[in-house]
Amino acid sequence: MFLESNPRFVSRLTRETLALIMAGGRGGRLSSLTDWRTKPAIPFGGKFRLIDFPLSNCINSGIRRVGILTQYKAHSLIQHVQRGWGFLRGEFGEFVELIPAQQRMDKPLWYSGTADSVYQNIDIIKAHDPSYVLILAGDHVYKMDYGAMIARHAESGADVTVGCVQVDREQARAFGVMSVEEDGRVTALTEKPADPEPMPGQPDQALVSMGIYVFNRDYLFQALREDAEDFASSRDFGRDLLPRAIARDRVNAFLFSDPVTGQQAYWRDVGTVDAFYRANQELIQEEPELNLYDQEWPIWTYQAQLPPAKFILDEEGQRGVAIDSMVSGGNIIAGAEVRRSVLFSQVVVEPGAHVEAAVVLPGVTVEAGSRIHGAVIDEGCRIPAGTAIGEDLAADRERFHVTDGGVVLVTAEMLGQEVAHVR
Q: Which of 80, 87, 200, 395 shows the smallest number of beta carbons within 10 Å?
């Protein structure tokens, strides 16, 4: 294969690529998890944030020029990027650049869609002078070498290449569903169809867009200008710009698969509380699909300087234990039991408490005798002593948010507590 025999070709292409990460949306389907933070800033996997996955993919792929387009409640995201992603060397042309929504002289408006957010920053893209522009979503969890996709794009002569994955048809209703010819050319892209088109020979599967696009620079500029002049456009890549490109130009699909097995690679859209909960719970399996211990493709992040997790008390009925769980730095499990749970940093679980099948975000205190099952506990909550969560969903609905899947989301506001500083 051309890519395997020409690694310098891929390296040159990634050096000539500018990545833009879409990180401006709220993510309303995540309910109160995005009341005080943008979706890409949500903690994930015990110590990371969602934005760390596309950023790490860029760095590991050899793409060292990255812009992050921000808008909605971006303070915690900006703080995280400034603290954890400032190690690139500007004198070598490397950067992770925060690009907030700004009032432009000719258009004093917020970003009105994903395509508009890029259009409003054409001058910045021009200043970096890339050959290719890689558009990425800032809120998906996966590990991907973008170099292979960019190389395929360059080889094919396409104007645009769209990253795609296979999902169950039922799930496909939440995505942009693609129709693709045998040579990889995209013939249609339908946003969130009620009846997704099945893949040929696989009636229970559909091909959906990952929200990852590779554009030739000049083609992107032309397409953005045309979209900006179309008053009927919603200024969105998936709804407007790409369907227009598919109708008249060359748009190819790149199927994201495991490079070794050729099977569908791990990719999760954690756009709902249920999906966020499931993706975190998957990580505590004995051999999860997403390997966070992979030293060949590390996920980089900012980490506070915290002491190791501590498990204390060794008395009958009051031993501090965590079983089938992920426990982060700064945690104290004091005479309590934690099972099948993901505990982020600086979580304290007091004597007699029982936490099972839970996702507990940073800075939470679970006071003595509390019982938590099947819940997501937001950052900074203090669960009062003796509280039961997840045992009586009818009672939980009166105080908290209960999802269709039966996951209980608890925030400080729901507990009547002052909202902690969201980090």
A: 87
